[in-house]
Write a structure and sequence with these properties.
Elements: H1 17-30, H2 35-69, H3 73-86, H4 92-95, H5 107-137, H6 140-147, E1 150-157, E2 162-163, E3 174-186, E4 189-192, E5 196-202, E6 213-222, E7 231-234, E8 240-243, H7 247-262, H8 268-279, H9 287-295, H10 306-322, H11 327-345, H12 349-366, H13 373-387, H14 395-417, H15 423-446, E9 449-451, H16 454-478, H17 483-508, E10 514-516, H18 520-540, H19 542-562, E11 575-579, E12 588-593, E13 596-600, H20 606-615, E14 620-626, H21 631-634, H22 637-641, E15 649-651, H23 658-667, E16 672-674, E17 679-683, E18 690-695, H24 699-706, H25 714-719, E19 723-728, E20 731-735, H26 741-756, E21 775-777, H27 788-794, E22 798-801, H28 814-822, E23 826-829, H29 830-833, E24 836-839, E25 846-849
Parallel strand pairs: 5-7, 13-14, 14-15, 15-16, 20-21, 21-22, 22-23
Antiparallel strand pairs: 1-3, 1-6, 2-3, 3-4, 3-5, 6-7, 6-8, 9-10, 11-12, 11-24, 12-13, 17-18, 18-19, 19-20, 24-25
Helix pairs in contact: 1-5, 1-13, 2-5, 5-13, 7-11, 7-16, 7-17, 8-16, 8-17, 9-17, 10-11, 10-12, 10-16, 11-12, 12-13, 12-14, 13-14, 14-15, 15-16, 15-18, 16-17, 18-19
């Protein structure tokens, strides 16, 4: 057909790919193991490697000795003449072998060589991981976090502050800042450190710049297992600037500021999107545009990725070539440009992966190695995991590597299959489609929706990405010497980014543009299997696949509705209590009828709260308790109440933070009841009747809350949480909200006093006992600040922890989990296990998790 091009049959070199994948999996698991275990594993792999190499060397020696012993030129000539006379071909190829020829490898030998190559890649990276884990375990910052003490620390800001999407503690915006700590001072002793620290702070913490050295203090909390940071802290003081940073960081920030200044005259969307697209600076990105980019599957444009590095490297390479520079000059200039861009855009996982790939590509150019994309990708993965093992658990790194792998493996194969079609249109569709195909199962773990507009949206904006990137980099460079020229370059880039913003807004407005999908591992596995089926069909019969697309789309629309009846989907029969998976927040459901329930808190997301209640079959709420007004407990109320009647909503007597308290009152007008004294009652009827009692905060906590400023401390509001004691189907439940140790001790005194004056266990309310419970909802998402004596008094058999996956708070804290282990309680957490449901009665409690 016209416009078609000769396309070579793709034959990628896949020899390094299994070893790189195995390295990734081993390091991913090793990060949550003890350092000693990882070192033992690396030693075992080293022994296997040495034995394998020894066996391979012995095999080579035997073959060499056999060849030397059998070297007889005269016998070889006789065999040749005999073969020529008889025309025998039974051993023809073997008879024609000369002294230097080798026999073809058997499948067993090939498999052995592949296993040996994989072990050779895994063993050193695992050893490095074990050493890094051991070093971090012995770091003084790790020890301070385990003890929960306050320390003074000094270190370098390793990345730009990131504003959190929502501040659950009220007041001004809260920022996440990563610090590479150099020294810590605790109990009058200063010690060197090399650990990573995550700081949550407000005010001046948001003005910091990567590369600066700062000093501050805060109470340390252990980070979650598998995280790169050793500790997290909520800063009690602002940062003190010690050093403005080395000149590369200062120069990079000067360029970024110049780019922001050059974009000042652009329309709102372009003004925020151009710096975001070029260097990942999202500080001025409009929130509505951010949401529309996500809905249209274009969020990756706001994170610097391989495309940015590839565009910049190609421009520099060809510019030096146009100036008659040699290959070495082109290579050197490209590597320097890539290194400078890494500093400019910050060393994020995707940037590091793309930068190393670019350097390897330059090496490939110098050595005349073409078509080595897959080996380069595998080498990049192994090298980066060796340098920073914690990249194995980075979603950004995973998405970047998978997208690149899709481009290297799928796009050439599709071009070959569709070689009779015009190459340009096929390539334009294949690139975004391949990226979405391989990354979709991972993105499901982050957001359980499948975008139906992502591929066409990416196809429409593809032509605008390169001009915007080049114009943005030019504007940043020109800002140093020619501000007017920088503004002109930014104006050219603004045209491209304005088009991208327009496509994002239109894609987000498409009705049913995204398809709800089951979340967690179940949804990811389902989507991966369906994707593999479609891709395999497309690879075999491209024309006939079109006829299969309608039933596949229909299956996508129907299958999510079937998921509740599959394992891990719907509620198990006879469920009593459920902890919803609503991200970093809490929502507890106590069953009060076949389709009725009592809800304790609603989490931070209305969609997640509604989805959880739908999955449990709850169509009516008899009672709602908002333990306190932090957003991670109250913001999901709108979704929880939708279409589920008009239940009374009991709330904390301290209406702080004011915005969230006002929202709750607005959602339940005339039905909001502040808990000023102990309130109890029943909900539901028959076998599922729930007896409940609310324990309000102490008078001192209420007075302190009422006297708080307009920006109260998070711990103060936590301490005015209302505690629920309930019994359903004989199962006793205690939901503790976010009470801190001070309020936990006060609660312990109250319950102990009531139990002491009661006959037996003591009846402290409508059928609720002041004594041991079966299930407890752990306070404050499993933070390290727990009063062990309270939990020993309650003595729960099951502890439910509502916590978000990959949260930056360090929840649940190892200290809290260890405490539960000491008192004999089994802990279940929503970040790794999804929704948790408790079934049965008090004598046969069972726990079913979604994952």
């Amino acid at each position: 057909m016209g416009g078609s091009a000769r396309v070579a049959r793709p034959s990628p070199d896949l020899r390094l790919l299994p070893g790189a994948g195995l390295t990734w999996v081993v390091v991913w698991k090793a990060l949550v193991l003890a350092p000693g275990t990882v070192l033992v594993l690396s030693g075992a792999l080293g022994v296997v490697l040495v034995l394998g190499l020894g066996a391979a060397i012995s095999r080579v020696r035997r073959r060499v000795d056999a060849a030397a012993a059998g070297l007889d030129l005269r016998r070889g000539r006789r065999r040749g003449r005999r073969a020529a006379r008889t025309g025998s071909s039974s051993r023809g190829p073997a008879r024609r072998r000369g002294p230097g020829c080798h026999r073809p490898r058997t499948p067993l030998v090939a498999w052995g060589a592949g296993v040996l190559l994989g072990v050779a890649l895994v063993a050193p990276v695992t050893a490095v991981t074990g050493v890094r884990l051991l070093h971090r375990e012995r770091d003084p910052l790790t020890a301070a976090a385990a003890e929960g003490v306050t320390v003074r620390f000094e270190g370098k800001v390793s990345g730009d502050p990131k504003q959190l999407s929502g501040n659950a503690f009220g007041g001004g915006p809260r920022f996440l800042v990563r610090i590479g700590v150099d020294s810590v001072e605790s109990r009058g002793r200063q010690r060197p450190s090399s650990a990573q620290l995550v700081v949550f702070g407000t005010g001046n913490w948001g003005t910091l710049v990567a590369g600066q050295r700062i000093r501050s203090s805060g109470r340390m909390q252990p980070a979650d297992r598998g995280k790169a940071e050793a500790a997290v802290t909520f800063a009690g003081a602002g940062p003190v600037l010690v050093d403005a940073g080395s000149w590369p960081w200062r120069f990079a920030e000067h360029l970024r500021e110049g780019l922001r200044a050059a974009c000042a005259g652009l329309p709102d969307d372009a003004r925020g999107l151009l710096p975001s697209l070029v260097v990942g600076d999202t500080s001025r990105l409009d929130p509505r545009l951010r949401e529309d980019l996500a809905a249209g599957g274009l969020t990756h444009l706001t994170a610097v990725s391989g495309s940015n590095v590839a565009i910049l490297g190609a421009v520099v390479f060809f510019l030096i070539g146009a100036l008659r520079g040699g290959r070495r000059a082109q290579a050197a200039g490209t590597v320097l440009a890539i290194a400078g861009f890494v500093v400019l855009a910050r060393p994020e996982p995707s940037v590091l992966r793309a930068a190393l790939m670019g350097v390897l590509a330059v090496v490939g150019v110098l050595t005349a190695r073409r078509g080595a994309g897959v080996p380069m990708l595998a080498t990049t993965v192994v090298v980066l995991l060796g340098v920073d093992p914690w990249l194995a658990r980075s979603f950004g790194f995973a998405l970047s590597v998978l997208a690149t792998a899709g481009l290297l493996l799928l796009v050439p194969a599709w071009l070959y299959r569709l070689r009779r079609w015009p190459r340009g249109p096929v390539l334009a569709v294949a690139v975004p489609l391949a990226a979405q195909v391989v990354t979709a199962p991972v993105t499901i773990l982050l957001d359980p929706v499948v975008s139906l507009v992502s591929v066409p949206a990416n196809l429409l904006v593809a032509a605008a990405v390169a001009p915007a990137t080049v114009a943005g980099v030019a504007a940043a460079a020109l800002s140093l010497v020619w501000p007017a020229g920088a503004a002109a370059a930014a104006w050219a880039g603004g045209l491209a980014t304005q088009w991208i913003a327009l496509v994002a807004h239109r894609a987000a407005a498409v009705p049913a543009g995204s398809l709800p999908w089951p979340d967690g591992v179940t949804g990811a596995a389902l989507l991966a299997g369906l994707t593999l089926l479609v891709v395999s069909l497309l690879m075999r019969r491209a024309w006939r696949t079109a006829a299969l697309l309608p039933p596949v789309v229909a299956a996508c629309l129907v299958l999510p509705r079937w998921i509740p009846v599959l394992p891990g989907g719907g509620p198990p029969p006879g469920w009593v209590v459920a902890q919803c998976d609503v991200g970093q927040g809490s929502a507890t459901v106590i069953r009060s009828g076949p389709d009725r329930a009592v809800l304790v808190d609603a989490g931070p997301d209305p969609v997640a709260a509604d989805r959880c209640l739908n999955g449990l079959g709850v169509r009516h709420l008899d009672l709602v308790l908002i333990t306190h007004f932090h957003a991670d407990h109250a913001d999901g109320l709108d979704g929880a109440l939708a279409g589920r009647g008009s239940p009374p909503v009991f709330v904390s007597p301290v209406a702080l933070p004011t915005p969230q308290a006002r929202d709750v009152t607005r959602l339940a007008p005339g039905r909001t009841v502040p808990v000023a004294a102990g309130i109890g009652g029943t909900a539901g009827q028959g076998a599922w009747q729930v007896r409940w009692r609310l324990v309000p905060p102490g008078a001192a906590a209420v007075r302190a809350g009422l006297a708080a400023t307009s920006e109260p401390e998070g711990e103060l509001i936590n301490n005015v949480s209302v505690v629920l004691l309930a019994e359903a189907g004989g199962v006793r439940v205690a939901a503790l909200g976010d009470v801190e140790p001070e309020a936990q001790r006060a609660l312990l005194r109250t319950l102990s006093a009531e139990a002491a004056v009661s006959a037996g266990p003591g009846d402290v309310g409508p059928g609720v006992q002041a004594g041991p419970v079966d299930v407890v909802v752990l306070s404050h998402h499993g933070s390290a600040r727990q009063e062990e004596r309270l939990y020993r008094f309650l003595h729960p058999r099951i502890a439910l922890i509502g916590v978000g996956a990959d949260n930056d708070y360090g929840h649940p804290a190892p200290k809290a989990l260890a405490m539960l282990g000491r008192i004999g309680s089994r802990a279940f957490r929503t970040d790794t296990q999804g929704r948790i449901t408790v079934t049965g009665g008090p004598d046969d409690l069972r726990v079913v998790t979604a994952r």
